[in-house]
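Internal tracking record. Fields below are filled automatically when a chain is submitted to the structure queue. Please do not edit lines marked as system-generated. If the sequence contains nonstandard residues, flag them in the REMARKS field before resubmitting.
Queue: standard
Priority: normal
Entity type: single polypeptide chain
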Amino acid sequence: MAGCGSALGATLHVRYTSRRIVPPALFLWDIDGTLLRGATAIHRDAFAHAYQAVYGLPLNLDGVAAGGRTDTWLLAEPLRRIGLSDAEIWTRMPNAFREMQAYVEQHLGDLSHCVLPGAREVLAELHARGYVQALVTGNLSRIAMAKLRNAGLARYFDVGGFGEESEVRERLVSVALRHAAGAVGTHIELRRSVVVGDTPFDLEAGQLNGTRTCGVATGTCSLEELEAAGADLLLHSLADAETAIDALVGLIEDGLE
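SYSTEM-GENERATED OUTPUT FOLLOWS
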């Protein structure tokens, strides 16, 4: 994918123990509310810019709950509310996406202060241990990578499922699974794949695809809401990186002993 790093290609993901070859395992990360907090202002402004530049309408995302939604859904929803047909919306959507991505790349500043506590350490250690890491995010691909570059996290990702690839989040998981398997050159078992996110939408997307799920209560949803959504693993945050790493690894390794 244009603009992405090369971390996957640089790491051998089939690991060895004294007894056997261990098949690859995959962590599928959400961005906003899971890895970053406070990185959405310019992103939201990009919607308003695209509505005016492409649709000629003074709209924005005020009153639209964005958590766990894809950029495709978010772009369409205010337009549907004022009566535009899907045909009118989708015909101009590629131009709107180009405007949004260019706007974010032009206006986004340093986001190192937006990295949630422990996120950098968890990503670095999982990478060092040879686990595959990919994105499942509602962000458009160039917006996602711009955020991660400006936060200093892009080196851990070069594949994923992104907001322009479907309006429905669960389809992004299947896209990311396919891209990750292609990157490592082998099938990745669903029981060794974990969706990590901060909303019930993230967890449902993983569940519908048959992966394990981890809910992290660093976004707008409480731990109780994530528990009610059926998360296989619940974390208050990633701040205690060692505990978070042990819990995440335990979720995928428990069936191999």
